[in-house]
Amino acid sequence: MDIALRATQWDYKKLISVAASLSFEDYVSAFITFALVLTIPTSAILFLNWLDSSVPVGLYPPAGCRKLGLYWKSNLDDQFKAARKQASLTVKALLIYPVKSCAPVELAKAEVVRTGLRYDRQFTFAQLVSSQPQKNADGKDEVEHKWKFITQREFPLLAKVRTEIWIPEPDIDGYHPNLPYVRSKGAVVVSFPFSPDWSLLSFQGLKNLASILSAKLLAFDLKAEPESSFTLPYDPTPDRIQEKNYTAEKMQIWKEYHSFLNVGPEIPETSLAQLKYFLGVRNPFTLFRIDTRNYREVFRNAPVKADVDHQPIVAMQDAYPLHIIGLSSVREVEAKLPEKEARQLDSRRFRANIIVSGTTPFAEDKWARIRIGSGKTISDIGKELDPIPRFNEYHLSCRTARCKLPNIDPATGDRSPNEPYVSMTKYRRIDEGAQPYPCLGMQSVPMWDAGLGVGEEGEEEEEEQGLSGWVSAGDLVEVLEETEGHFYIKQ
Fold first, then answer.
1. Where in this chain does the record put each MOSC domain (predicted)?
2. Across 186-226, where does the E strand assignment appear?
3. Which residues of 124-133 are buried (b: 16+ CB within 10 A; e: fewer)?
């Protein structure tokens, strides 16, 4: 050990001596040499990766569209800081989940329609499941096959599947009303991590290696992976449905069987196989979209048609159009974690649409009716309509019964076996109707002044009749009515 120590000390002193003897020109030469050594292979890696771009030319970005959402700073960047005293309640953040159980898209402002926030949970992935063999009347074994939606509960890596919403934008170069994605009211881009097999013995293997290395270089993260992506129309036209041979099929969401559009034919077979592998799905696998002519009606705790002039509807949501939660409630759940499980809880674990700041912990438990708005006119945020104050009312239908999905870290897809679910069962089993589940957050329905049936045109009718509204981050939240009588009705 002494010999090794003396050798290390000698090498250290020798290194200092050599460094001191070098001239300025020597240092410049060494720097240039290092830069070349680093730059040449890096450039080669990026060039090879460019050659093997996973998104075909012309599909991204979707022609005639602009990307929806925040580009830089998130309104949740400071969610872990100590809450400042607020004179009023405000909207902290707005989130939509275009594909159910996948990563959210954060918005600065959102249009409120009867199904919740526009673009929210319009799609869901599903797998084909088979029953155990059952004897029929002839004594023969029969097996039932049915499509069933999937979530992070079974496939936690859905948390790392990113979605983008692109909407038609007449002011951008190249816009034309007959462009495919303009006609379909926009596009959805789905991306997910996927590292292809690589080899030094083939050109394709080298390109795959280049894509892996370039992902790490560009992200300055050794854990970063390249992504695979595919693009599909947001609301496909009848011509597109016929061209791609969509089928209307029954799919199960919880206890409900409903007819949806199977848009799987839009996804390239390679992309679908890669996504199955990434998620760990073994059964037949596809993507469904809500049929806008056939939304799912909501009953249970929702307001009745006689009160709101229409029966509330949803697309792929579990039960109700909107989910609202107080940021202070999330922080309180975090504070009550056991010491050995202590961590920062990202509010996105709870997959709310509207996150409210300025409340006391769990204040939303008693909300029955709220108003959200800023006093600005609709024309102030891009709608050329009558200058009316921009306020919308919401019916707080029931509390949100919680499963173990919030145990999944939305950034990594890693699942904790216990928290925060186990802790919440000790103090958040507050609704007799939701037993044995804990509750956090509120399920909500937008309120309108005029009637609208479930028609064939769906969202277009809402716009024509003035039934859509707007909500923005920073809007004021006013509690109009509270109740002690919330009682969760199960499906």
1. 293-480
2. 187-193
3. bbbbeeeeee
- Closest to 440 in 3D by CA, of 431, 448, 449: 431
Cα–Cα distance for residue pair 437/431, rounded to 1 Å: 9
How large is the average pLDDT for residues 292-300? Answer: 93
Q: What is the pTM of this model?
A: 0.83
Q: 385-416, pLDDT tens digit by residue?
A: 444 456 689 999 999 999 999 999 999 999 99
Residue ranges covered by each domain of the chain:
2-51, 83-116+295-491
How large is the average pLDDT for residues 122-143? 81
Strand arrangement of the beta sheet that strand 227-233 belongs to? 65-67, 162-168, 187-193, 227-233
Contact 407, 418 (CB under 8 A): yes
Answer for the pair 434, 425: CB distance below 8 angstroms, yes or no: no
* Cβ 263 vs Cβ 289: under 8 Å: yes
For residue 420, what is the DSSP state? T
What's the gap between Cα 331 and its chain centre?
A: 21
Distance from C-alpha of 178 to C-alpha of 168, rounded to nearest angstrom: 11
Alpha carbon 147 to its chain centroid, in Å, reads: 22
Mean pLDDT, residues 31-53 taken together: 52
φ, ψ for residue 418, nearest 5 deg: -125, -50
Return the minimum-mean-pLDDT range out of 30-34, 75-79, 191-195. 30-34
Q: Do the Cβ atoms of 96 and 351 come closer than 8 Å?
A: no
Q: How far apart are CA 342 and CA 336, in angstroms?
A: 9
Per-residue pLDDT averaged across 222-227, rounded?
A: 77
Asked whether the beta carbons of 295 and 113 are under 8 A apart, the reply is no
Q: CA distances (Å), 195 to each of 51, 182, 445, in order?
A: 16, 32, 42
Q: Give the integer Cα–Cα distance in Å for 256 and 300.
A: 13
CA distance 403 to 439: 9
- What b-and-e string marks burial along 406-441, b requiring 16 or more CB atoms within 10 Å of the CB? bbbbbeebeebeebbbbbbeeebbebebbeebbbbb
Cβ pair 83, 327 in contact under 8 A: yes
- Strand-strand pairing, 145-149 and 247-253: parallel
**391 token code pair:** 């306020």
* Cα separation, 128 vs 156, whole angstroms: 18
What is the C-alpha R_g of the chain?
27
| CATH number of the 83-116+295-491 domain | 2.40.33
pLDDT the model gives residue 382: 46
pLDDT of residue 459: 54
Q: Which residues pair with 150 in a beta bridge?
A: none
